[in-house]
Amino acid sequence: MKPSKEQLQLIDKQVKRLVAGDSYYGKMYREMGLTEINSEEDFYKIPFSSKEDLRNAYPLGIQAVPDEEVVRIHSSSGTTGKPVIIPYTKKDVEDWAIMFERCYRMAGITNKDRIHITPGYGLWTAGIGFQAGCERLGAMAVPMGPGNTEKQIQMMIDLKSTVLCATSSYALLLSEEINRRGIRDQIHLTKGVIGSERWSDKMRQTIHDGLGIELFDIYGLTEIYGPGIGINCPGERAMHCFDDYLYIEIIDPVTGENVPDGEEGEIVITTLVKEGAPLLRFRTHDMSRIVPGECKCGCKYPRLDVIKGRSDDMFKIHGVNMFPSQVEEMLAKVDGATSEYRVTLAHEDDKNCDVFLLTVEGEGRVRFEDMAKNIAYVFKTYVGVTPRVTIVPVGTLPRSEKKTKRVTDYRNQEE
Ligand code: ZN
User: Which contacts of 25-31 are long-range, i.e. CB under 8 A and separated by 24 or more positions?
Assistant: First the structure.
């Protein structure tokens, strides 16, 4: 999807504003002679920005406004190294809430709803984003934050919460707990707004069945406002993203070249009006594609398909590149397998070869031994790699309130 004339004008403004100042990117662009954006060709001269830059600029090197205009910071830790700090102006905070309100509205949520917010508050962008959008919408926020499942469920019952905001991992945990206690009839949830990690269709189905709620995927990342920059519309899976605030490209993660609409690649985002920490051509490492054409809901915002994974989540085993989403696709073919699994990669010194260990929770309906054989067969047939499979009962693998780490690679000595 090419940048529109309006988008290019906004990007030109961003570049000029950055170059006039002394922020990390301002200096970088000035040094490379990038001072204005008058055409699509100019746009592609802008270098990609990355989390690595933000770490280099730690703590506030990317701040592009005077101190008195910054009203808040958020931070994302990531898995390695220094955290990243993103300063926000008053307008940035408002713009984020405007987008988040749009997301709720797109999901059919109104000011009559009671929104139970379980993502964390604080440095993390999640909780406060859900909250600000909710207040803007005029709905009742129940600002729980994560943890204390006992209290979560009690409040959900007493306050008759209608919307659950959670990571998919925590939604699954709550669903399992509510059903284990046999109290689903006391729960008033009708919708779930699920963010912050990619989840499989099987997991989606399990949560949908377990809580009887309509589920929505909300997209976002701390570096670009936070969650709330896009959401799917009812009945569809692709997420509408707000192109008056963001310009989205899809690139080949290896060559950095743009791919045609409809083709899969890495999402790259340019913020059009962000003030505190504008990011141009930011590499998200999230893999998806632009869904071409218009959505049948009539909404004109462009669409990103379901996030397939992260380009850095890819793991290589016996010469085959695999994404967690592929593991999930394979498990979906196997009767009795649930959405919960762990991949462990290790090096077997005796035989000097890599081993691929796969632990999967089984429903118990199908014999574990048969299931393990079936899983190994499916992988061998479709992927060409045979894992060593262990089946364990449902509830064995740890549940998480935040993101679930499903792949552990012990071959990587740095970790
Ligand atoms: Zn739509």
Answer: 25/49, 25/53, 25/62, 25/64, 25/278, 25/279, 25/280, 26/64
pTM exceeds 0.85 for this model: yes
Q: Please tell me the CATH superfamily of domain 89-310, with its number.
A: ANL, N-terminal domain (3.40.50.12780)
Residue extents of the structural domains in the chain? 89-310, 314-414
Stated length of the chain: 415
pLDDT digits (tens, 9 = 90+) for 79-118: 556 889 999 999 999 999 999 999 999 999 999 999 999 9
Residues with CB under 5 A from ligand 1 (ion): 233, 295, 297, 299
The hierarchical CATH code for the domain 314-414 is: 3.30.300.30
| Rounded to 5°, angle at Cα 169 from 270 and 130 | 50
Q: How far is the CA of 300 from the centre of ligand 1 (A)?
A: 8
**How far does residue 201's CA lie from ligand 1's centre (Å)?**
19
Distance (angstroms) between ligand 1 centre and the Cα of 227 equals 18
